[in-house]
Backbone:
């Protein structure tokens, strides 16, 4: 049975309130297809029953599961290629030059999904910047979804996932095979600090950072939320720090203090 306006509006309001994610009218099918399996898992016959349960407001775990079901976790290793080229050839070399006295770099992947992005970054650093082995290097990765954070912590990927964007040479070097699964080796896994952060709620204490990767998450928010998060991210950056966004995301026309920089096909944003 298709979901009603009432059920759709309830879920839409809940997801906006909990995660700032905007679900557009017309996406009823999406809500239905994402929530039906969750309803069934709880022994409920329909999304209506799920909404009735949620309306009682006494089951925060269920709310969390609904939010997780409604997030889009699409990602891949070295996604979009150009950001990683810019990191290798421009952004990280510049940061290394700027931080050579302190010998400390703090990086934050702010919507890590299942971890392909921070692991790509960690491999890129190990392959291209061996000098950072003697620095204090922190790669903090966060997401709103505990399920995604658990996947990041485990570092376990299937064949399809490692086929997407990961060069075979890096697969062989940084992963061990376990049947049909590939598991990130411990030395790479240990480079990541995994934390729960809802970008749309007050942020927990985080250190000042040199590089924020906040890619392909702002697209889910409305303009007011985007501006507020980008302002907050600006405050979280050290001077000369850099923000990388997804290919369809920008700080332009938002009256923010970032300096827009260009490296070949990639725009990125600096705090000068
Ligand atoms: C499409 S993935 C992007 C993953 C990766 N950054 C990339 O570009 O490949 C979007 C991620 O944002 C997370 N997300 C959605 N709303 C969020 C919020 N309010 N706070 C933190 N993370 C959120 C989702 O759980 C999902 O893992």
Residues:
């Amino acid at each position: 049975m298709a979901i009603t306006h009432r059920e759709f509006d309830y879920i839409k309001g809940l997801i906006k309130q909990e995660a700032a994610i905007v679900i557009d009218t017309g996406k009823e099918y999406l809500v239905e297809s994402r929530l039906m399996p969750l309803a069934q898992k709880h022994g409920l016959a329909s999304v209506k029953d799920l909404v009735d349960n949620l309306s009682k407001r006494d089951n925060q775990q269920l709310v969390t599961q609904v939010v997780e079901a409604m997030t889009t976790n699409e990602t891949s290793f070295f996604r979009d290629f150009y950001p990683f080229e810019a990191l290798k050839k421009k952004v990280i070399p510049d940061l290394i030059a700027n931080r050579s006295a302190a010998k400390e770099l703090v990086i934050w992947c702010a919507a890590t999904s299942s971890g392909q992005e921070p692991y790509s970054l960690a491999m890129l650093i190990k392959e291209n910047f061996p000098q950072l082995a003697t620095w204090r290097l922190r790669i903090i990765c966060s997401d709103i979804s505990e399920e995604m954070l658990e996947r990041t912590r485990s570092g376990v990927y299937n064949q399809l996932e490692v086929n997407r964007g990961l060069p075979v040479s890096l697969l062989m070097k940084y992963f061990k095979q376990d049947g049909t699964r590939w598991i990130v080796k411990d030395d790479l896994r240990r480079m990541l600090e995994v934390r729960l952060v809802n970008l749309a709620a007050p942020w927990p204490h985080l250190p000042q950072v040199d590089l924020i990767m906040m890619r392909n998450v702002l697209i889910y928010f409305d303009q007011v939320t985007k501006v507020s998060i980008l302002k907050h991210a600006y405050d979280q950056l050290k001077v000369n720090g850099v923000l990388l966004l997804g290919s369809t995301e920008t700080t332009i026309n938002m009256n923010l203090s970032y300096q827009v920089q260009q490296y070949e096909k990639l725009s990125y944003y600096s705090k000068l």
